[in-house]
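User: Quick one: structure for sequence A, then sequence B.

Assistant: Sequence A:
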Amino acid sequence: MKDKEEPECIVDFAAVEELTSLTGVREQQEIQRADPMHSGFMWYVPPLAVSRLQHESGGHDWIISGHDMQVLTATVSPGETVTTEVGSFVYGSGDIETKVELTCFGSGGCSEGWNRICGGESCAKVLLTNKGMEEGYVGLTPPYPAKIVPLQFGKHIQENHALIAQPGVYMSQLGKVYVACDLDCSPTTCCCAGFGCCRQKITGNKDSIAFLSAGGTIVYRQLADNETITVDSRSIVAVEESVSLGITPNGRLCVCCLGGEGCFSTTLTGPGKVFMQSMNYYKFKQAVTVTVIEDRGSSSGGINNNISY
């Protein structure tokens, strides 16, 4: 007896419509299959090049290739420039010229650089410019094993709203996107909510798109007014700025010390969207870190490698 094929439940942020915004009977059945536990969290599967036509944003066509550790390929018209983070370049056409702009001394003034640094990004950004006479292309990838999450301003992020993101999740952009910082002056949330005092703030013009990197399985949820959920602080990718952050104690002393979640978890109160990841960079780093201990007392004079995960 053959196993039944697993249903394909796709929430494509870059598609013409999002699954959760549809109201037909068939679409509601798909939502039920994507979220059978009624948690409100929808599973996000990136728009793969093998199954989707390329998308268009900011005058560029683009596709995302791969199931994990993905590659973003975008077209670059003659004279046009794609802005990305340091270390994300994979390939490009022959006429692509690479430059690095130090934002502390760039056209935006030193404030742009300091805003990026306080928001958790490098003061340097890479500019990939097509110097040829024909349309070119560039391939970009996150700096660690991750999926690429495309978020379009005015569609996935409400118009005139910003995105509050974890440091380091910003990867690239098409169109006018600005990476800055936002100060959290609350002593409780800035110390215990997982974002710190200087939070990364991403804004953009309508129809511009920011590409974020996130690890593992990506889910998102639309919070209603005054709806509150409790989440792991490090598993947050980003939230709309309309979402309010708070904290809640994780329990008594033994739970705080031995439960693996610390003393506090983060509470998120709507309205607004919340984007989550199952394998954040900290968790990934902890899983693959190898500690090599040199045994100087070895009689052979060699090195005894003790590997721990």
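Sequence B:
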Amino acid sequence: MVLQWRKTVGALGVILLLAFHLQEGEGSQEHFVLIHGLGHGAWCWYKIVTLLKQKGHRVAALDLTSNGINREAPTNEVNSIAHYAKPLMDYISNLGNDEKVTLVGHSLGGCPLSYAMEMYPTKISKAIFVSAFTPRNNQSFLSSANPKNFARLVENGVIVLNREADSELPTSASLALDHVKTYLYNKSPDEDVILAQSLLTPTPFPVSVEILKLSEEKYGSIKRFYVMLMEDRLLPPEYQEYTIAQNPPEKVFKLHASDHSPFFSQPEQLCNLLIHIATL
């Protein structure tokens, strides 16, 4: 009887210990919000959404204004980051009083992510930039990046700038479909390349040149993390390092076998890394 009682107490101890680890650390439920980059939409995160939900986490992937299936406004009528990021702002503003999210921005998504950090600092627990641009105060997406890279992509026809007859600046930027396999999806499955080529859309260009106002009190109060993609041909590692050096994050992680699109090429590795960072 005493032996049985000890076994029962021991088993209860193990159960309580497991319950504690599920509530604390990497077993706890996190809430992720995924922000797409140039030309993409919520659709590009489908593998990550599935994996995070299977692991018991909450996750939302959003279409920013005029991208994906969001048709709130035509691309050429979106003239500010505030307008472009409105779906993200709406989502965060509707969170519960004590609820916080981990924001994940990919590529150009680093700009709406940074904007959200300034607007809702108490609602964001961490910010994760995945081969993304990390503008400082008084910088834009373009001015925060190494100018050689953007010029290279335009000259090589990877990024196409779309203009209207009466417009001084481009109204939108598109990814050339015949170049995306080489520059964005060089390590991704063919079926995902075909999917992307059928769903990519232009992104409002004013988002790229708008100067962001980011304060130390708000934007600076949130821990930032950076995920480098070492097989990235759109934003090669040396250009990612330039971005990191301009605005150093809390910590840098690397996915050594990923192209510019880890949500396609290394979904399991990206998912596990996001969960790990969220629990730091």
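The mean pLDDT is 91. DSSP finds 13 helices and nine strands in the chain.

User: Thanks, that's what I needed.
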